């Protein structure tokens, strides 16, 4: 009887594990679909952002009326909603300073 009960518990454990495997496989497929949808959504957003970026720079001009070169400038949006066009060299120097500060804090 003890051996029979042991076999029964073992069989139940195996059945529970098989059920867990099936549930995890279903969850994995669901997560793959969600990941795929998120990736497509991110790609669409990146494309829209690139289009917007190009559209903005096509309309921008400097003080002399010449078009602003997108290779030399970057659009910066602050947390309060204001938007600035900043030379890339300034952004790079700010990033270096921020990185140096982070390394000093570590």
Topology record:
Elements: H1 2-59, E1 73-77, E2 83-87, H2 88-105
Antiparallel strand pairs: 1-2
Protein name: NF2L3 factor
GO molecular function: DNA-binding transcription factor activity, RNA polymerase II-specific; RNA polymerase II cis-regulatory region sequence-specific DNA binding
Pfam family, one: bZIP_1
What's the N-to-C terminus distance? 63 Å
Q: How many discrete domains? A: 2
Report the count of strand segments.
Answer: 2
Main β-sheet, in a few words? 2 strands, antiparallel
The 3D shape can be described as elongated
Structure classification: mainly alpha
* Elements, N to C (H/E): HEEH
Overall pLDDT metric: 87
Fraction in helix: over 70%
Low-confidence stretches: none
Number of helices: 2
Oligomerization category of the chains in this entry: single chain
Question: Largest beta sheet: what is the strand line-up?
Answer: 1-2
- As a whole number of angstroms, the C-alpha radius of gyration is 28 Å
Residues in β-strands, percent:
5-15%
Report what the structure shows:
- This protein is mostly helical and 106 residues long.
- The protein has two domains: 1-59; 66-105, no CATH class.
- The protein is built from two helices and two strands; from the N terminus they run αββα.
- It has helices spanning 2-59, 88-105; strands spanning 73-77, 83-87.
- The protein has a two-stranded antiparallel ribbon.
- β1 (73-77) and β2 (83-87) form a beta hairpin.
- The longest helix has 58 residues, at 2-59.
- The N and C termini lie far apart (63 Å).
- This is NF2L3 factor.
- One of its GO terms (molecular function) is RNA polymerase II cis-regulatory region sequence-specific DNA binding.
- Residues 2-49 form the BZIP domain.
């Amino acid at each position: 009887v003890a051996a029979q009960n042991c076999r029964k518990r073992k069989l139940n454990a195996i059945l529970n594990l098989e059920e867990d495997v099936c549930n995890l496989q279903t969850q994995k497929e669901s997560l793959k679909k969600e990941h795929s949808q998120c990736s497509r959504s991110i790609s669409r957003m990146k494309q829209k952002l690139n289009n917007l970026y190009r559209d903005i720079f096509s309309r921008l001009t400097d003080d002399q009326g010449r078009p602003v070169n997108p290779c030399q400038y970057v659009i910066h949006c602050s947390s309060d909603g204001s938007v600035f066009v900043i030379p890339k060299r300034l952004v790079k120097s700010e990033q270096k300073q921020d990185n140096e500060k982070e390394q000093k804090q570590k």
